[in-house]
Amino acid sequence: MLPSKKFLFLFMCLPMVMMGHPIPDIPVHGDFTKGGATVISIDVDPRCFVDDPEAIPYQTMKDLEALSAEKREELFQKAKALIAKSLELKFEPESWFLPEFEYTFANRIEGELVNPEDEFTIRATWETHLHHTNTLFNIRALETADWVIFCKNSIEGEAQTDVQILFPGEESLQVDITRVRPPGPWITLKSFFRQGFVHVLPLGLDHILFVLGIFLLSRRWKPLLLQVTMFTLAHTITLGLATLDIVNVPIKPVEIVIAASICVVALQNIFRPVYTNDRLVIIFVLGLIHGLGFASALRDLDLNPTALIAGLLGFNIGVELGQLAVLLIAWVLTLPFIQKEEYRRFIVIPVSLCITIMGAYWVIERLG
User: How many Cβ atoms are within 10 Å of 92's Cβ, its own excluded?
Assistant: First the structure.
């Protein structure tokens, strides 16, 4: 099989197994007091149960009220099954276990479910009183987990800054639940750095295709670096503003525009394959939109300021390195095509066409 055919085959297969911006995690919150009172709560977004969670908006109280008692109970059972395959808890010196949670519908942000437009989550809650010997706590994500586990804790009502993100098969660091720890951003920065990287590679297929669209216009480093820098600057601006809730845009139209932006960049490679300053303006505007898409992975995690800054910085660095990894892989794969006409004929046009088709498919899907 020719290298070009292998390349095209890869692009045709990837959409079958990957989604655009998957929901990043299952949040687990531990609330501890020195007296032993303990509450573990887990939020499950009901969109976890569909094939493409980001293709539909958050479910609201209005949607919940339309469900029968049987459908509501079915959601609880799905959440229970998802949690059972996702994680276990441990309080030293006890063994790993999964508590018997109580399941309720709760406001995804805060407060009670009151208004029809309030977005709801399925909340699993376990309350207990620990023995005085149970001073160390940790979580492990099971190999069978479908999502990564986002772990945060509060001790004596004070949110801790050492936030961790666990991938399937990983175990968190042990937390001493008897003392409040001073702010320390490094664990959070490291966890979110990795999350930012995998949010692009391999999980962010729509972002991968957009970056490839940038790459395919020209393999010369100057225009390539100018485009990537402009894109980075733009999405860093909106990532910060949206994560800090200064800008708040509904996720569905953002995801639609992101999909459309993939088509725009790819079609430019086919019909206007010349690098101009106009291209930089287009890349900047589209970068602003992509930043809003990335922010959906951070905005709703309710971190304290220190953890939020560390998470934002780590996530953004991870995204940038993920982008550079995509560019490096693309550069290596296209090395056999030395001649400009051959490169355009066998790589630029067919791959840009595949990218356009995939972007158009996402637009139609997300409009539904």
Answer: 13
